[in-house]
Each structure stands twice: as structure tokens, then as C-alpha cells.
Amino acid sequence: MKWLIRLYPARWRERYGGELEQLVRDLRPSRSTAGIALDLVKGAFDVHVQQGIGLQVGDRKAIKRGMVIAGAVWLGLSAEIFVVNVVLPSQSDDELLSVLASYLCIFAALFLTGLLAAPADASLKGHLLAGLVAGSMIGALTAATFAVVDNVWLDIVALQQSKIEGFAQSGAGSMREFINKGLVGLAVFLTVGLGVGGAILSWAGGVVGRHGRLTGTTVASTST
Fold first, then answer.
1. What is the pTM of this model?
2. Most distant CA atoms of the chain, gap in Å
């Protein structure tokens, strides 16, 4: 286990290394080796992040909460993508309303990321990073879902009119090649676009959240 403690920054080990080694020895009789190892790796990551970019406790909480929100949004989007493209496919490609609804849900979730970060006393950096991480996660994971759906159920997806017309004009050797080339651009667009948009929306949510807290504090102090 001592080699895992070396994952922590040198200065941190000089100050807390002895205490951590003693804690590991105390935990061994009651905890599994795998559980202790996982905690050490997670702790080392948290320390490096905190020291590397100066994150406060509230900032780290905001980022973790943003990751949870991103995971929930991605699961919802994945279900929609599967239903629309595989279960109830439409050859007319009339999906404007569902696409708009999906983006509105994403934007609302990214705004909520910042709104929920305000009570945790996250800094401006924390709000921006929480939104950036959440938006990038949603974009990258959603692109991965499209890649799985389009390749596993290619025979169904290939019947979409937009795919047929795009393939005819692309010069690609196969429908799979055409689709996968398009997925590369989609992955970059979603990851970068939602990452940047997430940072902005999370910041806006934080502004609203802090304003609400200040207003509530002012009203409470006035009423007393």
C-alpha cells in the first residue's frame, strides 16, 4: 500500500504521509485491500486537483454535482436516441421538436449545475469548471451513444432519408464509413460546444443562485 501513498504530492506526503500510513494500517483489519486502494487513489486525485488548480471544497463539490447531473442527462438522451432511431424510426427525419426539446433540457441542466453550486459557496472558477466538465461529458457521451446506435443498428439507421441523401453525395465507400466520418465532427462539435456553453450557463446559474441567497438573507435580516 505504501507505493499508492507515493501518488500523493511530495509536499503533502511530508506533512501528512505518516498519518496516512498509520490510517491504512488501522483500516486493514476491517477494510478490504481493494477498498483501501481505491480510497487512496481517489484521495491522491483530489489532492492533486486541489493543489494543481487551487480548487476550494465548494468548487470540488460543484464539479462532482455537475458530473452527476451530466450522467443523468446522458441517460435520458441515450434513451431518446435509441427510441427515435431504432424503436420508432421515422424516414421523414421530422425530428425538429424532439431535438429542440433535448437541447432545452441540456441547457436547463447546465444552468441548474451553476444554480446548485451557489449554496456550496463555489467560486467563479468552480462554477465555470463545473459547467465545462458537465457540458463536455454530455457532449462526449452523447456522441458515443450515437456511435453505438448507428453502428449496431446500421440497417435501421441507414433507411433515414438524410443518411441516404448524404451518402449519395459523399463519395464514401459504404454507409458505415459515411456515418462514422460524420460522427467525428459531431463528437467534436458536441463536446466543445456544450463544454463552452456549459461554462457560460453554469456561471449564469451561479449568478442567479448567489443573488437569490443575498436577497433571502436581506429579507430575513429585515424581518428580524
1. 0.75
2. 75
**Whether 183 contacts 93, CB under 8 Å:** no
Burial of 125: CB neighbours in 10 Å, binned 0-12, 13-18, 19+? middle
pLDDT, one tens digit per residue, over 88-123 is 887 665 677 888 999 999 999 999 999 998 777 788
Match 467534436 to its residue by C-alpha cell.
188
Query: Which 3 state secondary structure label does DSSP give 92?
Result: coil
Give 29-61 pLDDT, tens digit per residue.
Answer: 888 887 788 788 788 877 877 776 667 888 888
pLDDT at 217 over 80: no
Rg (the chain; Cα; Å): 23
CA distances (Å), origin 193, targets 136, 178, 185: 8, 23, 12
Burial grade of 73 (CB within 10 A; 0-12, 13-18, 19 or more): buried
- pLDDT on residue 53: 63
Cβ 38 vs Cβ 57: under 8 Å: no
Predicted confidence (pLDDT) at residue 193 exceeds the cutoff of 90: yes
**How far is Cα 163 from Cα 93, in angstroms, rounded to an integer?**
10
DSSP single-letter state for residue 88: S
CB 51 within 8 A of CB 16: no
Instruction: Determine contact, residues 201/213, Cβ cutoff 8 Å.
Output: no
Please check whether residue 43 is in contact with residue 81, taking contact to mean a CB–CB distance below 8 angstroms: no
CA 87 from centroid of its chain's CA atoms: 27
Per the CB < 8 A criterion, the answer to whether 186 and 146 are in contact is yes
